[in-house]
Write a structure and sequence with these properties.
Thrombin, subunit H, 6-stranded antiparallel barrel, 17% helix, elongated
């Protein structure tokens, strides 16, 4: 095992680990082990052109486009967009990718499934198990919250593996790139970190690096930022569990388009359009959405989170709406993505 003691002592002193110096020596060993295991479990996703035949005697330079994480039994989880490629003008998800391990061993992996809704792809390593990454990580039991210490290991700008440390900012934020909430994190991530694991202080998987917001432009379209976003580990685990079990991961669809409108001194959630399940259930344009299953709703994000994280396709939910001068309870059987 590599000696991380100096780094860990700095993290203790700087407060990243949230520990008193008196616990530094014993705790540093366990944290060091967690970091080392996560490093061994992380893989680089090779560019498709990496498979081309070299025209010299020196082989091909390693060209890494993204990151993945080994969760055991040869299963690699990564971001869907980290493996996408264009063929004939269409974007496809390849059946086979090649990854490079921490000890620079190249391995093929076969697609098992994934979910475009959450930008997750799951692959199964091929070849003898002795060639697979020498470690794996496990999903954390709970979710992250404001200020939690986290780290990620990946291949920023195709280089690495690099280890960066930071904290959770807003664990409930949204981008147009996926339908679920995202965890905003304050740590250094770049193009190439996509698909890498976001890990807690115990080395458990709490998220999957998904996106950055551009603040600095370097070479071509490669970007770096300390404003990163990760898919929540609990949702990634849900996709992986379904894929490994041979089923199709699905998420609930209500079919309501909402707009926030000012009504007096308050802002309200108003139905702008009802399609699919909500239209069949009788929702009308102008209905004011108040609650779902007696859980009050104040923002579209609250509704989206409830549907994705607390319901399943085919489940019936009750939504309370204000229609004119009266309140009504509408039951809806949810569709699926």
């Amino acid at each position: 095992m590599r000696d991380y003691s100096k780094i860990l002592m700095w993290l203790v002193i700087s407060g990243w680990l949230g520990l008193s110096p008196g616990f530094a020596e014993t705790t540093a060993m366990s944290i060091s082990h967690a970091i080392e295991q996560a490093k061994l479990a992380s893989v680089g996703i090779l560019q498709a052109e990496q498979r081309e035949t070299p025209d010299n005697d020196y082989g091909l330079p390693v060209s890494i486009r993204g990151t993945g994480i080994h969760i055991g039994r040869g299963v690699i989880v990564t971001a869907r967009h980290a493996v996408e490629r264009s063929e004939g003008g269409k974007v496809i998800i390849p059946d086979t990718i090649h990854v490079v391990t921490d000890d620079l061993l190249e391995l093929p992996a076969i697609r098992q499934g994934g979910n475009a809704y959450l930008d997750v792809a799951v692959y199964q390593l091929q070849g003898p198990e002795s060639d697979w990454p020498k470690a794996h990580v496990e999903f954390a039991d709970g979710d992250v919250t404001y200020g939690d210490r986290v780290f990620t290991i990946g291949y920023p700008l195709g280089w690495g593996p690099a280890i960066t440390y930071g904290t959770v900012g807003n664990p409930n934020t949204f981008l147009a790139t996926v339908q679920s909430r995202l965890v905003q994190v304050d740590l250094s991530v770049c193009s190439g970190n996509s698909g890498g694991g976001l890990l807690n202080q115990h080395g458990q998987l709490v998220g999957l690096i998904h996106a950055i917001i551009q603040t600095e432009t370097q070479h071509e379209d490669r970007r770096c930022s300390r404003l990163g976003f990760a898919l929540p580990g609990l949702l990634v685990q849900r996709v992986v569990t379904a894929v490994v079990a041979g089923t199709v991961p699905g998420f609930s669809v209500l079919g309501i388009q909402l707009q926030t409108m000012r009504m007096g001194s308050r802002w309200a959630l108003v139905v702008a359009k009802a399609t699919g399940p909500s239209r069949h259930a009788g929702f009308r344009k102008g209905d004011v959405l108040l609650a779902i299953n007696d859980v009050p709703l104040a923002t579209p994000a609250q509704l989206k989170n409830y549907l994705i994280e607390r319901t399943e396709p085919g489940q019936t939910v009750a939504l309370r709406v204000q229609r004119g001068d009266s309140q009504e309870l509408i039951s809806v059987m949810l569709g699926g993505s």
